[in-house]
Amino acid sequence: MIEVLPDKCDFCGCCVGVCPEDAIELKEAEIIIIEKTCTNCAKCVWSCPIEVLVFNRNGVGNTNAEK
Amino acid sequence: MLKSEYDIVVVGAGPAGSMAARFAAEKGVSVLVLEKDRDVGYPVRCGEAVSKAGIEEFIPSDPKFIATVINKFSFVAPDGSEVIIPLEEEGYILERRIFDYELAKTAAKAGAEILTRAYVNGLLFDGDRVAGVKYEFNGERKEVKSKIVIAADGVESRVGRWAGLKTHVDFRDMESAVQITAANVPVNPDTCYFYFGEEFAPQGYFWIFPKDNNSANIGLGIGGGMNRKKSARKYLNDFMSKNYPDASVLTTVAGGVPCVPTLDEIVAPGIMLAGDAARQVNPLSGGGIASGMIGGSIAGAVAGDAVLNNNPDYIFEYQKKWNDRLGKRHRIFDRIKNGIYNFTDRQFNDIAHAVLKLPEDKRSLGNIFKIALVNKPKLLIDVAKVFFTK
Prior knowledge:
The complex is a heterodimer of chains A (about 70) and B (about 400).
Chain A: E1 2-4, H1 14-18, E2 24-27, E3 30-33, H2 43-47, E4 53-55
Chain B: E1 5-11, H1 15-25, E2 31-34, E3 49-51, H2 52-56, E4 66-76, E5 82-94, H3 96-109, E6 113-115, E7 118-126, E8 129-137, E9 140-151, H4 159-162, E10 174-183, E11 191-195, E12 205-212, E13 215-223, H5 224-227, H6 232-243, E14 248-258, E15 267-268, E16 271-273, H7 289-308, H8 317-340, H9 345-357, H10 365-372, H11 377-387
Parallel strand pairs in B: 1-2, 1-9, 2-6, 4-11, 9-16
Antiparallel strand pairs in B: 3-5, 4-5, 7-8, 8-9, 10-13, 10-14, 11-12, 12-13, 15-16
């Protein structure tokens, strides 16, 4: 599953623009992967300019950047 | 005091949203702008370069939002060959955090209301027609009805999707970008620098845009297919440690630049898209300030007329008006981009060497593209259309 690494995100929205499933919620300074919509296609991971998103094969649950 | 219903709700208070709000309000209809961030104009997610004419169509030039005046472009090939092009028309490096503020003030002056920290998270529908938005404000869930929603909610736009418009950008066409504003960077304050090649920015370009003679926006954009292998941030770090190890970083911004032609559909019943949300960026340069303002202004004026004439379907005219003004032109820029974005270092070097053989007064943007695309006659016609005819 897709994880957001804590304290790294710049909230730029690049990932939201490339998400084919509308599975990313971006507020002013909060980003959430909507797990039930996400298909793990990883396009957000590939396009993130600052390597905030990672694909975790083990699927240990998503991390909210705000935590 | 907010009303429960407006003629027009605009989502986003960037250049496109503010111009949509202003041009609608100038028609005399009621307009509310909802901005998710607490400040209009901040954080800045932009290289801040724009042409003087692009600004002055909408707001007089004012030193308070102009960092530097640009008269020259410098193109640097992978082998270090430098081609300097004097600009026919001057450009600016803006202070977007002030510029966006001033644009929003013109919208407010025209009568639009603006609410910050208002995060739009859903649409209201009347049958199939968009009839307002849901939003969060101060931790509360709110709704506001409208006859028309103009979604200018940026590269991360979701509002259009909720109305069934296909706004998603293929990750290979989304330029993954990162930029710092750095001090202790000696630069010519009248020159924008562009670096090309594998080392700097494959399938994109690396830029240095001066903010004064000792600080600059330094960044790059690369295609998502490249970013997947090595991130934009790594390219930037490599460049800085090699070239400006003593620079101080004042701010860092990441971003996605949708380098695609405008979406095929930017209007659906009750809703219009503008700016980055509509993918109105120039796909060749990645510039979106001026084109976003143009898109927003057309959307706002058409929406205002639709309300005044009580003709909801009139908003579909926006699509045609946009295409006539810039949409078709952006398709040409996109074809040119597709002709050059995959060039090898050797090709870039060859172009630079050929341009440097031209007399200085023949070195122009148009002639650079003519040389670059000399083996692609169809694209030469496109170059002629956008660089050699007004």
